[in-house]
Design goal:
This protein is mostly helical. It folds into two domains: about 110 residues, Rna Polymerase Sigma Factor, Chain: A, CATH 1.10.1740; about 80 residues, Winged helix-like DNA-binding domain superfamily/Winged helix DNA-binding domain (Arc Repressor Mutant, subunit A), CATH 1.10.10. Helices cover about 80% and strands about 0% of the residues. It contains eight helices and no strands. The two termini are about 70 Å apart. One of its GO terms (biological process) is DNA-templated transcription initiation. It is found in: Cytoplasm.
Length: about 190
């Protein structure tokens, strides 16, 4: 029921706009002015749905579409629905907007922004590495070596034991106690 009413309402609007437009094409200026006023409301709603994230562009695009309708009015075929013709023009204007924005964003996207991102990440990593090395340097070898081999170099407990000449148990205990000592040192520094 509601769908039928909506379709009837749409058809009535279509017929009204078409009548105003055809009368305007015949030289009736008042009908043409009314047509442009009503069409602008229709276009505004049509474009607002499609430009949810760019609401500031809606009014400009409405004006561009109205101008295009006016300039291309001689191409309208009265045997065809007016709404399809107007929507095609509005869609072309919408595509033009997206192209303009893409070109603008492409031209104005600086390469330096990407470099700053990586350089700051590198600088932060270097600072963290320096701070960690400073903290580890204060630990005795039986704590420092197990942490460096297992946590920083990614060796297994067995591999760390082989490299350092310590037992596997000593590696596990050294890591545990070394991390505990580092945590206490960091807490004391704060």
């Amino acid at each position: 029921m509601q769908r039928i009413n909506r379709e009837e309402s749409f058809r009535a609007k279509e017929e009204r706009l078409k009548d105003l437009f055809v009368r305007g094409l015949s030289g009736n200026n008042a009908a043409y002015q009314t047509f442009l006023g009503e069409l602008s409301s229709y276009l505004r709603a049509f474009l607002r749905k499609r430009l949810i994230r760019l609401p500031d562009e809606v009014e400009d695009l409405v004006q561009e579409a109205l101008l295009a309708v006016h300039n291309q009015r001689h191409t309208y075929d009265p045997s065809q629905p007016l709404s399809a013709w107007v929507q095609a023009i509005a869609r072309y204007k919408l595509v033009d907007l997206f192209r303009r924005r893409a070109i603008y964003e492409q031209r104005n996207d600086t390469l330096d922004d990407g470099m700053d991102l990586f350089s700051s990440a590198d600088a932060e990593a270097a600072e963290a590495r320096r701070d960690l090395n400073k903290l580890l340097a204060d630990l005795p070898d039986h704590f420092r070596l197990p942490i460096m081999h297992t946590k920083l170099e990614g060796l297994s407990v067995r591999e760390a034991a082989d490299v350092s000449g310590m037992s596997e148990s000593a590696i596990k205990v050294g890591v545990h106690r070394g991390l505990k000592a580092l945590a206490a040192k960091i807490r004391g520094a704060l």
